[in-house]
Amino acid sequence: MPWWFLVVVLGAWLNFAIRFFTLDIMSAMLTSTFGPNGFFLSPHWFVLEGAAFGLLIDYVATKFGGEGKQTMHDQSES
Fold it and tell me: What is the CB neighbour count within 10 angstroms for residue 58?
C-alpha cells in the first residue's frame, strides 16, 4: 500500500474514534468557539483534519527519513 493512502486512512480513523467517543463534548466546544452559526460546527470536520495532518506529517517523515529499506543504515559502512 502506498504511504500516502495508509496515513490518510489512519489519521482519519484515529480522529473518527476520538470524535465518536466525545461527540457531545466536542459539539458543545465547537459551538462555544465558533458561535451558533459558525462554519466548523460539525465535529465531522475533525475526521478530515486528521486525514490532512496525517498526510502532512508522514510526507515530512518520509521525505527526511526515507521509506522502506531506505530508513535502515548499513552497519558495515560506519
Answer: 19
Give every CB contact of residue 72 below 8 A, 6+ residues apart in sequence.
none
Residue 22 inside a domain? The answer is yes
pLDDT tens, residue by residue, 44-67: 888 999 999 999 999 998 888 777
Q: Does 77 map to a domain?
A: no
Residue 52 lies in a domain: yes
User: What pTM was estimated for this model as a whole?
Assistant: 0.73
Q: How far apart are CA 48 and CA 11, in angstroms?
A: 9
CA angle 24–51–37, rounded 5-degree value? 45
Q: Give the torsion through C-alpha atoms of 7, 9, 12, 17, to 10 deg.
A: -110
Q: How far, in whole angstroms, is CA 40 from its chain's centroid? A: 17
Containing domain of residue 14, as a range?
A: 3-62
